[in-house]
Design goal:
heterodimer, A: alpha/beta, FAD/NAD(P)-binding domain, 3 domains, 5-stranded parallel β-sheet, 16 strands, B: alpha/beta, Elongation Factor Tu (Ef-tu), domain 3, Rossmann fold, Dihydroorotate dehydrogenase B (pyrk subunit), domain 3, 7-stranded mixed β-sheet, 6-stranded antiparallel β-sheet, 9 helices, about 30% strand, globular, binds flavin-adenine dinucleotide, binds FE2/S2 (inorganic) cluster
Amino acid sequence: METIAEYIKKGRPDAWRAELRKSMKAKERTSLERVVMPEQDPNVRNKNIEEVNFGITEEMAVVEAHRCLDCPEPTCTIGCPVGIDIPHFIKKIESKDFLGAAAVIKQTNALPAVCGRVCPQEKQCELQCFYTQKLHKPAIAIGNLERFAADYERNSGKMSVPAIAESNGIKVAVVGSGPSGLAAAGDLAKMGYDVTVFEALHEIGGVLKYGIPEFRLPNDIVDVEIENMRKMGVKFRTDFIVGKTASFEDLREQGYQAFFVGSGAGLPKFMNIPGENFNGIFSSNEYLTRINLMKAAYDDYDTPVLEGKNVAVVGGGNTAMDSVRTSKRLGAKRSMIIYRRSIEEMPARVEEVHHAQAEEIEFMNLHNPVEYYADENGRVNRMRVQKMELGEPDASGRRRPIPIEGSEFDIDVDLVVVAVGVSPNPIVPASLKDLKMTDWGTIVVDKETMQSSIPDIFAGGDIVRGGATVILAMGDGRTAAVGIDQYIQEKVKAN
Amino acid sequence: MNKIIEKEFFSENVARLVIDAPDIAKSRKAGHFVIIRLDEKGERIPLTIADGDPEKGTITLVVQKVGVTSAKLLAMNEGDEILDLVGPLGKATHIDKFGTVLCAGGGVGVAPLLPIVKALHEAGNRVITVLAGRNKDLIIMEDEMRKYSDEVVIMTDDGSYGKQGLVTAGMEEVIKREKVDKSVVIGPAIMMKFGSFTTKKYNIPTEVSLNTIMVDGTGMCGACRISVGGKTKFVCVDGPEFDAFQVDWDQMMTRMGAYKTEEHEAYQKYLETVQTEA
Ligand SMILES: Cc1cc2nc3c(=O)[nH]c(=O)nc-3n(C[C@H](O)[C@H](O)[C@H](O)COP(=O)(O)OP(=O)(O)OC[C@H]3O[C@@H](n4cnc5c(N)ncnc54)[C@H](O)[C@@H]3O)c2cc1C
Ligand code: FES
């Protein structure tokens, strides 16, 4: 099989690309400014739920594509977890073949419109870009271009449904409909398998639906992808918990030959500090689920959510940013981030931190909650925080936060969202005694094939990695699809 | 899917629904619950599975009108379908041969108690059941309970049926009379709190089934969390049954009231719309 590096090098000598490279001097290209993503005014958008970024125009995309030097050794591709042929799709954009660009991305990325919006590009492709590494200039806006190509294709009405191999009638079950499950299901369907995705919730999409808010990733975009998969013959069963509604053994009896488990890292962590169970203190999953999945902010929906005027969100990841920005949109007077390290260490996407700052979110970095207090009805009304300082780097390579004795003080709050991480969802492991697990509750798999200790069960995404990213989850799903295909082919041959 | 096959009112506000749910009917055990959502704009609420028939592929739910969703559900008819129904959720009840088991149920707590009484009976225990309610109309499922109990004691606040007094009086009478090895108390939080105070006096191990607020029911949100033995537990995956003596009852009652204002407003609004439609 060809390696990613070989795949990426293959297209560069093509005449059209050589031509394109010659059409503009490198100096001219590098003197162009990086495109600026048009966005809603911060003071308008922090009162609505519309998407913050409008997307770049065709003209902007073509100019940005001109900046790309089509490097002989494209380092950007090293940063991409799924090996997108980045220079290839960018050059397609430069030559105004936008549908062609989308097709290139889709060879290795099943959900480009999603990834263009939520990938941490600044830590991946854009970090490795020649501009960042050697020119010390802003990287090519690879994420914005990816989003542009995907949106262009979707809006063109010419979205391609991938070619499907002839049906082989072999049943495969996918457990969980987050990005890992969707990616696995898509690839297995392409190979001709009869795929059913089982989802515990009433909606398909996993975190893409219940977690990431509309203002960052509109549901419509995810729905289009799901619709496409239906066209490819993938079946979906919502309200079905594998391991509860039916066991793996039941499904084997129904003829499923292999399983992909993409059940995610659903279990929210709390800090176990005094007062954390007072009313008005939520996990970020609960807060975001009430609003994104259950639409609690709309009057005509039955699910309620408590209103907050002074909202504190604890944590520094994407989940924390999403929660704090949501609270502002729901009318909070004051929305604060409380994070125990400094802004540089925040794991959230840089763009989200910038957006939050522009939306008048207060950042209390180097602070950590130590206790909560409540009124006579048990509703939180005050929290005690402690100041922190940074010490030596810890195992994660980030400097360890150390509490400063005697620095505690109180803040008035009426709503608190705890976004300090998640643990793997225990339902599947609990239902399979023989499944090999790590001490952290993740499923142990062979990295090449994503096969678990039970031969017909494969796994990927957050249930294998702990809380990770959409793109890694998707990559796992695709690797597993290949692994499952090999496993089934061998089983068929053996019989 | 999820069709209502049968609906029978026990009283004005309490009804038994038999629902077509073949997968759940096959996999459920005593103690399990389901989460339902009635329509696109509906909320997700937990309901204990009161009974099930794997042959017919049905489960039984007993529903009391307490808010918008339960009122809407009771307004549905045979033949109607529930949009979303997922389960079985939670851990099944630990059933063993304990000896004599005192089961106490108050209000709709009687519904979740039934499968436990049945399972305990089938495991060879002597089962004494205390059913309590404000008045005669609120005593439900008495016949079913009698079928699986060695004795049924009825308590009403106003004395309109059975003996007059609280559930705890009925429990204490039994405990004083004979040796009780285990107790299961299910009902409103306040009833479980005082019911378990009673058994604690006599050192009788006691289980309660907590009906906290829930959203997903799969351990994903923590809305259902409660302190048990000083540790935070998620009722939907770690429970719903817990050692009664370890539960932080004050926290339980506070958390149950988290949406009191919102729930009340929503219910009033619902009643108004129903009235204008009528
Ligand atoms: C608020 C928030 C913001 C985020 N922002 C970003 C971001 O900007 N960029 C980024 O790259 N990543 C982000 N992430 C992380 C990213 O969403 C996850 O890494 C990714 O979704 C993991 O995908 P997955 O397929 O493993 O699982 P999930 O998306 O978690 O999906 C798992 C699904 O499986 C279902 N399930 C679980 N158990 C069962 C069962 N037994 N039977 C049936 N179904 C089951 C669950 O209900 C769920 O729908 C964010 C996460 C959150 C919570
Ligand atoms: S209901 Fe969400 S975790 Fe229990």
